[in-house]
Amino acid sequence: MSVFTHPEFDNHEHLSFHCDPKTGLRAIIAVHNTSRGPALGGCRMFPYSSEEEALTDVLRLSRGMTYKSALANLDLGGGKSVIIGNPHQHKTEALLESMGRFLESLGGLYIAAEDSGTSVADLKVMAGCTDYVAGVSSRPGFDGKPSSGDPSPATAYGTFVGIQSAVKHKLGRTDPDDLEGLSVAIQGVGNVGYRLARHLKDAGASLSVFDIHHDNMNRAVDELGATAVSADEILFLPVDVLAPCAMGATFNDESIPRMQAPIVAGAANNQLYRSGHDYTLWQKGILYAPDFVINAGGIIDVYYERIGAEPAVVRSHVESIGDTLDEIFARSKRDERPTGEIANELAEERFEHHPAEVRIPG
Ligand code: NAD
Q1: What is the pTM of this model?
Q2: Ligand 1 pocket: which residues have CB below 6 Å?
Q3: What CATH class does 146-349 carry?
Q4: Residue 17, SS3?
Q5: Among 31, 144, 226, 292, which one is least packed by beta carbons within 10 Å?
Q6: Which of 247, 251, 291 to mutate to test the pocket of ligand 1 (most atoms within 8 A of CB)?
C-alpha cells in the first residue's frame, strides 16, 4: 500500500496509524493542512473491506475538511480520522477510550468530532481520555434551542440557506423566505435530511423523499407530508431542486445524463464520483452547490463550541454560507466555469496564503 505516492495523498502534513490489540482498535488519523489552525474533522467508524479503502477514505475526507473550513472562513485546518470496524458490532467503551488516547498522543494537531458511525455519546467516552474532541457540549444551539453538541441542526440550516441562494440564482426567485410551490427531492432523510425537509416544508416547498431506512422515510411522510418515491426515481424526478443528503458519489457518468432537476444542493459529503463531474453537471446546465461549501454549518457550529459564542453569532456565520455561494454562482456565470472549480480556487487562496500562527484554544 503506497502512502506518499497514493493518488489521494495531496501533500498531507501528517498521517498516523494506530493499533491496539487489547481493544481491537485499528485507526488512522490524517491531517491535510494546518495553515489556518488545528485540523478539525469527524471520526468515522466503518467496516472498510480493506486498509487501502480506509486510507483512501481518510485522505479524501481530510483534504475536503481543509477546503471546507477555509471557505467557511474558520481558523481551522483539515483533518479526519477513521476507525476500521463495524459500529454495530465492534464498538466498545474500551475501543473508544483507546481512540481517545490516540487523539491525545497528537497533542491537539487534530480534533475529532462526530461522523458516520460515531455519536455524541461515543465522543464523550473519548473525551474521558483527551481534550481533543468537539461536538460534545450541551449548550444553546445556533437557533437558541438546547443542543447536545450534535452539529446536524446547523448543517441542515446551512444547507437550507444554500438552497435559497441556488434558487435565487437559477430560478430567479426574489424572496428567499418564500419557497411556496418549490419542489425538492431529498435523498436520505436522516439527521440532516429530515431537518432540512422540515425547513423546506415550513417555507412552503413540496417534498419527495427516499431513504433506504424505511422508518426514516415514513417519518418524513407522516410528519411533513412528503411523498415517498423509490430508489430508482429519487435522482431523476422533474423537480426544482435535488438535495442529496445520504452517502457520496451520487453524481457519475450514469446518473447525470438522466437527471432533470436544474439545481443540485444537498448536505452529503463527496457527492461527485470524481471531481470532473462538476464540469458534466455544468455542461448540462445544472447549478451545483459544491458540497463542502453548502454543508459547512456543522463545522461552523463545532468551531464555536470550542471558542464560545452567542447563538446569534453562530447563526450569522452559518448564514454566510449563502453569501459564499452567491459569490461562487456569480463567478461561475461570469467566467463560464463550473462552480466546483471556482470553489476549489477560492478555498486554496484562503489556506495557501493564510498566516500560520492562527490557533484556537486546544
Ligand atoms: P445520517 O446517517 O443520520 O443520515 C443519512 C440517511 O441516509 C440515513 O437515513 C440513511 O438510511 C440514508 N441513506 C443511506 N444510503 C442511502 C441511499 N443510497 N439512498 C437513500 N438513503 C440513504 O447522516 P447525516 O448526519 O444526516 O449525514 C448525511 C450526509 O451529510 C452524509 O453524507 C454526511 O457525511 C453529510 N454531512 C453531515 C453533517 C452533519 O452535521 N451530520 C455535516 C456535513 C456533512
Answers
A1: 0.92
A2: 116, 151-152, 155, 187-193, 210-213, 216, 245-248, 267-269, 295, 298
A3: alpha beta
A4: strand
A5: 144
A6: 247
